[in-house]
């Protein structure tokens, strides 16, 4: 086995999502980004976030499915300010599956879905 990577498939919103993620996560690195011919659809992008490699694309085929909250990206935040910032911004147009709170297993925790449908678990201890 050569590698294992998280893959996020969008349907026309990949470029917008990448730009949004760069605003939320200032240390997000776009390692590569290519577009389909004659469009702004992302053929393939490779992102790096805190050691996590993400592959991102826009599907050329329309599917009857999208992201599910049961698969999420888990982020361990460095400070209360960081988790508050991320929760506030990711929730713009998104959905709180578990609002920011102390659930006993984490001093501050939130499970939220961004406006693209991608789920994020944010934790601060």
Number of strands: 8
Compressed to H and E, one letter per element, the order equals EHEEEEHEEE
* Overall mean pLDDT: 96
CATH hierarchy class name of the largest domain: Alpha Beta
Give the total of domains: 2
Structural class: alpha/beta
CATH topology of the largest domain: Signal recognition particle alu RNA binding heterodimer, srp9/1
Helix content range: 10-25%
Looking at the structure, what is the overall shape?
Answer: globular
> Strand share of the residues?
35-45%
Query: Which stretches are low in confidence, meaning pLDDT under 50 for 5 or more residues running?
Result: none
Q: Please give the order of strands in the largest beta sheet.
A: 1-4-3-2
What is the count of helical runs? 2
Domain PhnB-like: 4-122
Organism: Lysinibacillus irui
Protein name: VOC family protein
Q: Can you give a write-up of this model?
A:
There is one protein chain. Strand 6 and strand 7 (108-113) form a beta hairpin. The chain is globular, with a radius of gyration of 15 Å. With 125 residues, it is of the alpha/beta class. It folds into 2 domains: 6-58, 2-Layer Sandwich (Signal recognition particle alu RNA binding heterodimer, srp9/1); 72-124, Signal recognition particle alu RNA binding heterodimer, srp9/1 (2-Layer Sandwich), CATH 3.30.720.110. The chain has helices at 14-24, 80-90, and strands at residues 6-10, 29-35, 42-49, 52-58, 72-76, 95-101, 108-113, 119-124. Residues 4-122 form the PhnB-like domain. InterPro entries: 3_dmu_93_MTrfase (IPR009725), Glyas_Bleomycin-R_OHBP_Dase (IPR029068), PhnB-like (IPR028973). This is VOC family protein. It comes from Lysinibacillus irui.
